[in-house]
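Comment thread on ticket #2218

A.B. wrote:
> Attaching the input chain for the structure job we discussed in standup.
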Amino acid sequence: MAAGIKPDSAAIKQYYQMLEGAEGQDALHEGNVRRAFETLLRETARDAKKWELVTEQSERRAGTLVRYDGVLRDQWRLPHGYWEAKDTHDDLDTEIRKKRDRGYPLTNIIFEDTREAVLFQDNDLILRADVRQPEALAGLLTRFFSHDIPPFVKFGEAVTYFQGVIPEIAGGLKGRIEAAHRENTAFGKAFDGFMAVCKASLNPNISPAAVDEMLIQHMLTARLIAKIFTEGFTQRNAIAAEIETVIGALTSAHFNPKDFLGALDRFYTAIEDAAEKLADYSQKQTFINTVYERFFQGYSVKVADTHGIVYTPQPIVDFMCAAVEEVLLTEFGKKLGDPGVYIIDPCTGTGNFAVNLLRRAHERNPRGFDRFYREQLFANEVMLMPYYIASLNIEHEYFALAGKYEPFEGVCFVDTLDLAERADGQMGFSFMTEKNAARVERQKRAPITVIIGNPPYNVGQLNENDNNKNRAYEVIDGRVAKTYAKDSKATLNRALYDPYVKFFRWASDRLGGRDGVVCYVSNNSFVDQIAFDGMRKHLLNDFTAVYHLDLHGNVRQNPKLSGTTHNVFGIQVGVGITVAVRSSKHHGYPIGNVDAAGNVGASGSDALTSGSDAPTTTPNTPTKPPARLLYHRVPEFWTRAEKLAFLADHVERKGRENALNTVEWTELTADNRNTWLVPENADQFDAFIPIGSREAKSAKGQVEAIFKTYSRGIATNADNYIFDFDRTSLIKRMQHIVHDYRVHLGRWLVEGQPKSIDGFLRVDEKVHKWIRNTKRTLLRGQKVEFDERKIRLALYRPFTKRNYYFERVFNEDTYQFPRIFPISETERENQVIIVGGYGRKDFAISLTNTICDVNFYADPAQCFPFYSYDEDGSNRRENITDWALKQFQERYSPRSDALSSDSPRPEGEGLGVRVISKWDIFYYVYALLHHPAYRAKFADNLKRELPRIPFVGDSSS
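C.D. wrote:
> Ran it. Output below, let me know if you need it in another format.
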């Protein structure tokens, strides 16, 4: 039962205020007044039941397409109520009768016209209310939110039960499998065979525990697949059949999985009953996707973390598919299903993009539909359960549209990034089964022209101790290094190896020189962060037009945002939709693109621009004009629901084939540093002196920057272990950690120096966190001794110092600090300006004489020291460049024989002569970076790059 809605609630008061505003403008037709009731429903639904109002929803009921003004859905995407708004000039009863005849559900629905609201529940008229009366309106809403749909209620109860028992059930299954490894010879043989296949097909570093988890996933979800989707799937599907063989061996020795899973019967039945209540297969699809996402992230957090599991909301899928259709038609005169249109979703998840494309192909191009399904549509998935569900979803959609069953041969159980060809053309991987391998080979031969999907967004595991790394890929990592990283001016570019970045690189290469389209929804850090300057450069070189729809939601940049409220995926990083178009007709010649071997790509006869105008080579012409760059950003504080409604509106505004042409794009021009979102005052800021630069750090001669070198703050990735307010506690802990390391080192040497360090380690997080650098040190066989002199004070957070163990082995990276504060004595003479804020928070500056943590204020804190040293504390040298000294002396000191930085200042004689020293410059920079006018005027610039320093006044000021 929902809490009663009060007649004097803020939401109802706001509703009447909005109506009064519409009346004052004489605008009481449906389009204007519906916004008032929509806002009322959204606010009250959220407060009363935590439901989400989804507007402009369509579904098929008994073969008829019905479209709702609003659907109230719970967190599992189950529909609990509907809303239909009618015009004040319509006869409400007549309109209700029409909707009823069309098959609109009367389970729990409100019809209203701003004068009267009518509530139907379970096919009966429950009440009529005069919405101008607060008491009547509140009563109607209370009744509406209090209505229960029995299968949904049981499902909610079952979920609560399931969340508590699933870890126990999964743990029990894990125990049975571990026992079978020890005792069941038949299982061991079958498992070893399957394990070898997984290593060859999916990941050469895959662990037995990960394969065990695949078996657990299969057993936990096999019933749902059979009941909700189709019987016989495990016999038909190539991968499922292979796993069933292993499970058959597992269960042969007196283990009945049905009996073991009996505790979950309540949950399975609740899911099945709730799914049965849904109107069409697409609703069941959405529901099961949500159940699977929540189930998977709850049961297997590590795998969800590694792969960045976030499934794509339907409005995003619809917008992207509409955008691809639009580009195909407007740029190439092609439809889905036409010859030359070969599409792949390289990370298909549960198959939503492929399903949407099938519907569109069937509607627009029925003649080409069968060919599209059989020959021109491909999808890859590397995780077992999404692969299953994708196969089922796509095959069912074809059955619903074509009226016949036919297996979908375009879906492969494979890691897409493994399909990147090496320079020698060799692969080195097999692909699970002969049938799956045949599918992979057919896909590799296909002249792909459209790539669409939602690549994994995640940078890597949350905890090094989880031994849960994202994979390295020889070919794609090499391509990223030779392109995006090579052309980046950023000091550190680790973010360029995020999975989603690799998928952009793979997609650009996979087109192989052909005209085509890449459409991704992804983490959109690449749009404005410094590390991605090389990637931005290549995107504009690899394509002729790039659209980016910025859906924002970056909680790290704006802490006022909530990931669950404002982000379309409920994550912390910003999200955007990118549509990159390669069309040779844009500039009269094809654009630059090379394959993994460095060869120029070619377009075959199946290219989108086939015929005499088709490009045969793709010269990397340096004079090629940059691609058109079109950008639109939704309001920063829009909620997830508002962003998804925006996308739905732009698909439907001029018909389902439209998306891009209804968005108000801003055309951008990248600057010479490959910045897309060029800040205001960029030219003026660019004219100032750089405080430091990547080129200055690596240069051996004269450098044109104020500081020769600078450093990130130290990054431990193990703060709780090597930081402590209490010195004595830190000493004891570090002694224990060093001892633990030495024990492991001794055992590693005795056991033959095994290369698989993650399998070798015996991790006890109460003692030690085995970060990457510690593991690398062990693999080098390096001995470590505890040294109390390495206990130093470090600036951990603003105005907060902690004791810190300054030893490279137990830090992820100490960067340049072994040369900035190599020994404690240097803290008495050296000083460091700390600059924080670009990329995350507002700009900040501080000054310290101690080691600084990378997260001192923001990530990363950049540190500019006055002195640098050798690592033993000797050979002190000034870090302010002679070039900078000359610039300041020429600006402010008229004398040509200005004294050196260490010379005493003249007193008395030489009155009026002003000598600029390097210490003067140091403090000038520190003071200038505090100046309110400077920080206000160049706030956007300071968020994107290191500060640049202007001269203030002139020599007489």
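A.B. wrote:
> Thanks. Noting for the ticket: Residues 94 and 954 are 80 Å apart (CA to CA).
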